[in-house]
Amino acid sequence: MYMANLCEKEAEKITGLEQYSYTRYAQSFEVIPRHLAENAGLKANKIIPTLYAGNKDGADTGINVLEGKTQPSSELEIYDLQNSKRWAVRLATDAALTILRIDQIIVAK
Questions:
Q1: What gap in Å lies between CA 59 and CA 3, rounded to an integer?
Q2: Which residue spans within the chain are E strands per DSSP?
């Protein structure tokens, strides 16, 4: 959610069609937490805003699926490798860009 917050802030600085792209890219970071909450039987519409608020200044809030609330990741003992996340985001972004390029080629023909 921290990445979503950063992308949203950047989107506010941009105008036009690029702003829409940045905003949608930021919203894509909601997918995993939303599915995690829904699969745990939680109401994602309540969890996602609290994740946004908790991760506003840094990526330190996660979902406690056992208790149905958000908590600091250190209390949940969740530790992720930043390098793994960086590569996951990079590869997902490359895949999305490839699909968009193929779409542009098809539309151009």
A1: 8
A2: 61-64, 69-72
Which residue in 48, 43, 49, 17 sits closest to 31, CA to CA? 48
Residue 77: CB atoms within 10 A of its CB come to 7
| Alpha-carbon span 80 to 102, nearest angstrom | 33
The residue behind tokens 């590569």 is: 87
The predicted-structure confidence for 54-70, as pLDDT tens digits, reads as follows 888 877 888 888 888 88
20 vs 79: CA distance, rounded Å: 32
pTM for the model stands at 0.71
- Sign (positive or negative) of CA dihedral 62, 64, 68, 70: negative
